Structures are given as structure tokens and as C-alpha cells.
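When time allows, look over one protein, given below as sequence and C-alpha cells. The question is which stretches look regular and which look disordered:
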Amino acid sequence: MPPAADPRETALKSLTAWWADMGIEPDLPVSAPKPRPRAPEPAARRAPPPAMQAAPATAAAARAAGYGEKAADEAEARKVAAKAKTIADLKTAIEEFEGSPLKRTARNTVFARGNPESGLMIVGEAPGKDEDEQGEPFVGKSGQLLDRMFASIGLDRETDVYVSNILNWRPPGNRSPTTEEIALALPFIERHIALVKPKIVVCVGGVSAQALLRASVGIMRLRGRWAEYSLKDEKFEPGEHIPALPVFHPAYLLRRPQEKKQAWRDLLMLQKRLEETG
């Protein structure tokens, strides 16, 4: 019979796995240290490390902790984004941008995938665990479902769509992004859309639709209705816009498969518009 596992080592492995899922990488030994008598440490020295304090697991906790507030302001982010003259320039600018605290707890900067010349740009909300690990948007279960959804109307994931997100870094624990984090990310995704200038934008999920369309209602009321995304860039005429279609996020469809009927109707609307625009 194999020896019983050390409960302290099992507990430590579970704790570090949880931290890893939260986007925290503490510098700890791989196995539990053997106990040894020592005097209790003062309370001030037992505080959690800064990395743990900087990663609240919910948007409400993030706001309460001041996480993400005024690390950089929207005007600063817009200046950085405006300097990008190409998609490659923008990717480099985002990778080098240090104004968002989300970058400190993320493993990778998640930029885009697909074909920017396709004419169809898909904008999601934020990277999840799989996207953070692989550095590409929509590669986990939600991404696989998204690919199948577009394949159902004849669109290939590599050649027929271009996929990005509002946020380029994963919020710890896959929590919802705060208002401040979205505001700081908007100049980059708006510049991204301006550089790609697609014929159609698909807003995947409520965060994407509300942020890009400046809407105050939820995705249940936004989906299935064509809207207009106004280009936010000085090189375009005021009022120049792109047709935009809000749709359910595939993560929502995985939780509520009964809503796939509505999602299919939205896909048919998109297919018809694509055929009309060529």
C-alpha cells in the first residue's frame, strides 16, 4: 500500500493551483516545508504579498480596493493608441503599455487572431484562463463554440473573421472588468477597429456591446438588433460608422444552451448582411 499523502503538501498544492487560476504566481517551494519551532511573527509581517492584494476576485472588490483606478487615465491611453499607424504598431504599443494593473496578474497580452482583411471583426469581452495561457483570444471552450457558430454559416476561423477583445489582459479569476478597466481599454480597441476598418463588427457579449455602442441596456435587449458603431478616430469624418451586431457570448450559451435558438437567428441575420455587402 502506498504511503498516505502528507496533508500539508496536498493543501499547499491545492492553494497554489487556486492562486494560479487567479493569475497569481507566488514564489513558494514546490512541497510543504517540515515544521520547526519558531517565534510568532508580528502581525505586520504576516500580511499577504502585494501580488495577492492586487488581484481582487470580483469587480466590486476591485473597486473597493481601488484596483485599476487612475493607474493611467483614458487620455494617456488614447495618446499611446493614436501613435500606432499599423496593426503591428498597435500590438507593440499594447504589449509595452504599463498603465493597467491587470497586466501584472496576467500571463500574456492577448491581442487578436484571424484575418484582419476579412471585413468581419469580432470583439469579445476579456481573455479567460485558456486565452491568458495561450496568448490568443477565444481559444478555450467558449472559443471553440464561437468557431462552430461561425462555421455553421460558412465562415472559417482563420480566413473569414478577425477576433479581438475589449480588454487585452485577463481579469483575475475571470471576474467582470471594472468600469475603470473598460475605460482604460477602450482607446486601444477603438484604435484597433479604426486600423482594421471592417465592414461589419460583431459585439460578443454584454461588456463588448455596451462599451462599443455606449449602451446602457443589457445584452438581452441589444442582441438581434443591428446598431451602428461610430468610428473613434480623427482620420474619419464625424458620424462615419460601421454596422454592428450584438450577440450572446458563447460562455453564456454553454451555461444556457436553450438560448442557442436565438443565437442561430442572430447568425442568420449576420449571414444575410454579409451576403448583401459582398
Remarks:
- The first strand starts at residue 113 and ends at 114.
- The chain has a mean pLDDT of 83.
- The radius of gyration is 21 Å.
